[in-house]
Amino acid sequence: MKKIFIILILNILISTFSYANDSQNTKETTAISNQIKTLQELYKSGAISGYEYEKEKKKF
């Protein structure tokens, strides 16, 4: 019974850490997509050239 309890607790902890990591990846992806949108807006408005747009986009 004690082994089952320990295994259950370990599974819960592993699941929690896994979920936290996924959440952070989602935040990073959202930040990158927002930066790309801003870059596209700068290009469309003429603030940066096509060359500058492509150069900056590669950094992501």
Profile the largest sheet: none
Distance between the termini: 50 Å
Q: Radius of gyration in whole Å, from Cα?
A: 21 Å
Which word captures the global form? rod-shaped
By DSSP, the count of extended strands is: 0
Continuous helix count: 2
Average pLDDT over all residues: 76
Given helix and strand content, the structural type is mainly alpha
- Looking at how many chains there are and whether they match, the oligomeric state comes to single chain
Structure description:
The chain is mainly alpha-helical. It has one domain. The protein is built from two helices and no strands. Helix 1 packs antiparallel against helix 2. The chain is rod-shaped. The model has no long low-confidence stretch (mean pLDDT 76).
Descriptive terms for the model:
mainly alpha
Outline the fold blueprint.
Layout: H1 2-45, H2 50-58
Please give a quick description of this structure.
By secondary structure, the protein is mainly α. It has 2 helices and no strands.
